[in-house]
C-alpha cells in the first residue's frame, strides 16, 4: 500500500510537471521569476519528446508499483484518468515530436506575450 501511494504521488507530480512544461510560460506573465525554473523545465520536457528519451519519473513510478506488488495500471482514478494522458497507448515517435512541438509552440506564445508586455511597460504604453 505504501509503495502504491508513493507511485501515485510520483504520477501526480509527473502530470503536474508536464502541465508546467506546457503552460508554465503563462505563469511568467504574472510572476516573472518563474522563468528561472520554467525555462530549464521546458527545455528538458521538449528534449524528452524530441529525443525520444524516457523521463526518469516513469521508471521510478514503475519500480514503486512493482515494489507494491502491482503488475499494471488497473484501478482507481489516477490509473484510469491520469495514466492515459501521461502514457498514451498510441505514443509513437511521430506523436512524441508533435507533443514536443506543441509544448514549444505554447511556450513561444507565452514568452512572446511576456516580451510584448515588457516592451509596452518600457515604452509607457
Q: What is the approximate shape? A: elongated
**Over the alpha carbons, how many angstroms does the gyration radius reach?**
17 Å
How far is it from the N-terminal to the C-terminal residue, by CA? 57 Å
The profile of the biggest β sheet is:
none
Strand content: under 5%
The share of residues in helices is: over 70%
Oligomer: single chain
| Mean of all residue-level pLDDT scores | 86
Order of helices and strands: HHHHHH
Task: Please count the beta strands (DSSP E, at least 2 residues each).
Answer: 0
Q: Could you describe the 3D structure shown?
A:
The protein is an all-alpha fold. It is built from six helices and no strands. It has helices at 2-23, 25-30, 35-51, 57-67, 77-86, 93-123. The model has no long low-confidence stretch (mean pLDDT 86).
What attributes does this structure have?
0% strand, 125 residues, mainly alpha
Amino acid at each position: 500500500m505504501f509503495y502504491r501511494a508513493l507511485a501515485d504521488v510520483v504520477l501526480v507530480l509527473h502530470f503536474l510537471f508536464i502541465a508546467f512544461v506546457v503552460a508554465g510560460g503563462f505563469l511568467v506573465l504574472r510572476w516573472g521569476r518563474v522563468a528561472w525554473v520554467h525555462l530549464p523545465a521546458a527545455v528538458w520536457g521538449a528534449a524528452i519528446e524530441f529525443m525520444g528519451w524516457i523521463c526518469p519519473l516513469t521508471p521510478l513510478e514503475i519500480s514503486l508499483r512493482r515494489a507494491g506488488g502491482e503488475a499494471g495500471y488497473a484501478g482507481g482514478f489516477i490509473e484510469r484518468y491520469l495514466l492515459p494522458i501521461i502514457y498514451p497507448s498510441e505514443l509513437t515517435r511521430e506523436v512524441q515530436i508533435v507533443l514536443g512541438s506543441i509544448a514549444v509552440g505554447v511556450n513561444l506564445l507565452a514568452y512572446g506575450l511576456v516580451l510584448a508586455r515588457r516592451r509596452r511597460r518600457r515604452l509607457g504604453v
